Predict the structure.
Amino acid sequence: MSRLDRFLREKDVIAATSLSHSTIWRGIKEGRFPRAVLISPGRVGWRESSIVAWQKIQVGGMPLITPKRIFATNCNRRC
């Protein structure tokens, strides 16, 4: 049986990554951090598996060094 993926709140993502609010949202805008998922109106969360995958990529040490657009979805322009 597969394990359900849970959603993390922003404060949990900040605690898990040690990144600030601004750095997380800048990383999302630049396509270098996993996008938040709309859970309900006015409520977003991050899939735990996305944050874990991002952390594994960061093993090299420097934050937000993932290839540009790796976490972008539904990109309608050249990415």
